[in-house]
């Protein structure tokens, strides 16, 4: 095996360890990581030790726990600034949140799934499962369906193959056929809804962020609870939402984002 290939393998293993530690969403002990890891104990220990030495992981000797390191956080912040819509969208979604008084999400697509890149939640607005850095299914979320509807045909075909069609609630799409029917409607109306499809009691209205040449860049949603709104009252937010997504798209059109 060449040095380059061996090095690539080591990097891949290190990234897998970082993702595993991050998935706990809290400081985690080595035995917990070992239980979830596919690596032998010795290999895992060496990888984590090396990541700590590089400040990609942080080790608390008193609690014997690992967490994401300052160097990794710094890199993630740089990526957030330079490779996503988040910094461009932020002032617009702040204004939208103040206007509608509800939780705002910004998302992009990652391997057919929704990647939330920013969220604004006012103190009085309902909490949602989504937050920056979290991944969710595209076929049963407002932002996901908004993005699917405006994808180029070949990209959409691939994304549809990457959906699980798991029935989270009775309202969740169980197949590509029913989803495609709704996507046609979304393209015609320019907005989508989450009808308690991913999380019981949570609904949203969403719209795609399109560049000036029509390329789909992401989506914005206004999310709330069924105790505060219905799908009908969410429609009151349609124009402010479309105004914001149009402004973000215009602002972002001169930027080059990864597909």
Provide a short characterization of the protein structure:
By secondary structure, the protein is of the alpha+beta class. The chain has ten helices and nine strands.
Descriptive notes:
This protein is of the alpha+beta class and 259 residues long. It folds into 2 domains: 3-74, Winged helix-like DNA-binding domain superfamily/Winged helix DNA-binding domain (Arc Repressor Mutant, subunit A, Orthogonal Bundle); 83-252, GAF domain (Beta-Lactamase), CATH 3.30.450.40. It is built from 10 helices and 9 strands. The protein has helices spanning 3-23, 30-36, 41-53, 70-82, 86-100, 142-149, 153-161, 176-189, 231-234, 238-252; strands spanning 28-29, 57-60, 65-68, 103-110, 113-120, 135-136, 192-195, 202-210, 216-225. A 6-stranded antiparallel sheet has the order 6-5-4-9-8-7, sandwiched between helices. Helix 1 packs across helix 3 (41-53), helix 5 packs antiparallel against helix 10 (238-252) and helix 6 (142-149) packs across helix 8 (176-189). The longest helix has 21 residues, at 3-23.
- The CATH superfamily of the largest domain is known as GAF domain
- CATH fold call of the largest domain: Beta-Lactamase
Helix-strand pattern:
HEHHEEHHEEEHHHEEEHH
Protein structure class: alpha+beta
CATH top-level class of the largest domain: Alpha Beta
In CATH, the architecture of the largest domain is: 2-Layer Sandwich
Q: Taking strands numbered 1, 2, ... along the chain, how are they ordered across the largest sheet?
A: 6-5-4-9-8-7
Largest sheet: 6 strands, antiparallel
Overall domain count: 2
> Which regions are unreliable across 5 or more consecutive residues at pLDDT < 50?
none
How would you describe the shape? globular
